[in-house]
Amino acid sequence: MVVKQLVFAITLLVTIGIFSFTISRFIRFFKFTRPAFPIRNFARRLWIMVDVAIGQTKIFRRPVIGFFHALVFWGFCIIAFGSIEMIVDGLWGTEHFLKFLGPVYSLTSASGDIFGLLVGLSILIFLSRRLFFHIKRFEGIEMKSVSHMDANLALSMILLLMVSLLGMNMAYYAGNIANEQTMTGVYPVSCLFAGILSGFSSSQIGMIYQTCWWSHILLIFIFANILPYSKHFHVFMSVPNVFLSRLYPLGKLPNMDNITREVKFMLDPNTPIEPPPAGLTTERFGIKDAEDISWKNYLDSLACTECGRCTSVCPANITGKRLSPRKIIMDVRARMKEKGPGMVKNGTAFSDHKSLLRDYISEEELWACTTCNACARECPININHPVLIVDMRRYLVMEEASAPGLIKGLFSNIENNGAPWQFSPDDRLLWAKNIEMNMN
Amino acid sequence: MEVRKVEVPVMSDMFAKGERPEFLFWVGCAGAFDDRYQQVTRAFVKILTYLEISYAVLGKEESCTGDPARRAGNEMLYQMQALQNIAVFKTYGIRKIITICPHCYNIFKNEYPDLGSDIEVFNYLQFLDQCIVKGQLRIDPQALDNVSVTFHDPCYLGRANDIYFEPRSILKSLTANVVEMERHKSFALCCGAGGAQMFKEAEKGEKEVYIERTEEALRTNASVIATACPFCMTMLTDGIKYKNREEDVRNFDIAELIVQSLKI
């Protein structure tokens, strides 16, 4: 027993070690990011988390497939309870450590068992959709074969997790029946299938139990360490991402305070120039590359699971333009992964002669956005794409003076006439002539 | 029936006379210059007159809010426009703004406060819906009863500001035949003009967004496509022309439908 505990403890330490190393890399990348917004309003944030993350309300905008995702998510929460117990059992050599919870334990073990089956079945639906059906949402220029492999690997691992979980419960049930022992917990699904094991001796059933127990916990450890390198990092990042949502109306763009200082001075040279806030270096306007993004942009990119709901509702994408909001978010993550290590070594001035703009995201994509916010409204975990797109336009326009010709015309019309068209301000009241109305 | 000429009060004249109107009616550039959309402005002014609202317009002192510049990435130009407009508001001590254009509404409500504006902002639909509820606007439910209407949600009213209820509430008081498009409310498809797209050619693609949306509207078989945004109006009117349906399908702003119903 002590050997088992020792092996378990070492395995757990290795898992935590690798995981911490991975996370510390992400934290170092976060240090390059710019501020996005202050994190206040905890009560409202908690409510959004309960509503959007726990309640899965935005995923239910597609009710059928959303329902299966909700099953997987809620199942994950319940089953995580059992996984924590397994870790304690593994370290202390106990069996079903949480059984002191009594009726609560019966409830959690029973729901874990039921959800094991429901999650497994949902995953089978997801896998078959990906493997045998042509779902438009899963295609697109950004969906390379590695993206599909990533998705299928994660789904297969979850399936194996559920198989090992149910196997474990079945062997536990069958073993207790064979040895006529009293059972801890309730297993309404596994007891139905435990008959499969009736041909085995009780020691063989014990072996099956141990095999499933170890496979389940090792799969969890391996999965946890694959996730941060996969799009399924979503599992860890989406709830925090929802908690850290932008709380403003979708129509609001963030104000550029450094521009405000300049404009106020331009309009009235007598304005006292406020000193720039401490720590503000001369940074470029808008976003060109990884060092210009905000922590929220980066968090969004890590939380994105490439479901493609954003792209499927994008008017530009629907009508065949190159823009795909999902790609924009995926590009942010890929670019930080590429440039981040160089910036860790050499500071943010590091250049690899590439940039997020143009090497990843083309001007054509950026100019195709109508800022309609359908993508942001649809995203089940409150990723905001239009703010990022406008920030990249800001770089193009204000640092490079680069914009489609008609947009440049628009700017000069506004500057010269105070209107987007070439009309004189003196004609602003022409509509008001000769209005007649019937008096009833 | 008596016909009366409507005089549109201008803020500077009122101010010179020592009068302080309750509302600034912000006309917007499309409202002032776009041939088709000027009709909407005129319709709304008739409603304001009918309701005997104390209002004025800025006239020559009005200038672009900066919305298309901002969404096209020109934060500098946007802030120049915004700070100058805010200065004009301060000059006249304006407390309440009412707008038709959802882009103007959104920028006043959500973005100008970052630059020091603290004015109460009303979208005309919220305002008019309240007037109907209070019984100040006596809609004749017979006037448009045989007209079927579908409403296209402007992005900057709907998703941007969660205004879905009021336009539908008004339309339902005008006619019993309100039909929804497949994608509506928060699922509504953009007309294709937001984010400064109105002022440029669309990127290369298989289809124009406004055609996709017009086709969806036409599938409802409604005889009127109701809009509440100057850009949506331009796009959908173009779409109806493109589909050669000008004979049997019309595009009206909700303000125009109210005027038809009130017969003013």
What does this structure look like?
- The complex is a heterodimer of chains A (440) and B (264).
- Chain A is mainly α and 440 residues long.
- The N and C termini of chain A lie far apart (95 Å).
- Chain A folds into two domains: 2-31 and 62-243, Fumarate Reductase Cytochrome B subunit, CATH 1.20.950; 257-424, Fumarate Reductase Iron-sulfur Protein, Chain B, domain 2 (Orthogonal Bundle).
- Chain A is elongated and about 95 Å long.
- Chain A is 61% helix and 1% strand.
- In chain B, strands 3-2-4-5 form a four-stranded parallel β-sheet.
- Chain B is an alpha/beta fold and 264 residues long.
- The radius of gyration of chain B is 18 Å and the shape is globular.
- Chain B has helices at 11-16, 29-33, 35-50, 67-71, 75-91, 102-111, 124-133, 158-161, 165-174, 209-218, 230-242, 254-262, and strands at 2-6, 23-26, 55-56, 96-99, 120-123, 149-151, 178-179, 224-227, 250-253.
- The model of chain B has no long low-confidence stretch (mean pLDDT 96).
- In chain B, helix 9 (165-174) runs parallel beside helix 12 (254-262) and helix 10 (209-218) crosses helix 11.
- The chains are: A mainly alpha (440), B alpha/beta (264).
- At the A-B interface, helix 9, helix 12, helix 16, helix 17 and helix 18 of A face strand 1, helix 2, helix 3, helix 4 and helix 5 of B.
Q: N-to-C SSE series of chain A?
A: HHHHHHHHHHHHHHHHHHE
CATH class of the largest domain in chain A: Mainly Alpha
Mean pLDDT level of chain B? 96
Number of helices of chain B: 12
Instruction: Determine the mean pLDDT of chain A.
Output: 94
The SS-based structural class of chain B is alpha/beta
Principal-axes geometry of chain A comes out as elongated
CATH architectural category of the largest domain in chain B: 3-Layer(aba) Sandwich
Task: Specify Rg of chain B, calculated over alpha carbons.
Answer: 18 Å
Unreliable segments of chain A (pLDDT under 50, ≥5 consecutive)? none
Total beta strands of chain B: 9
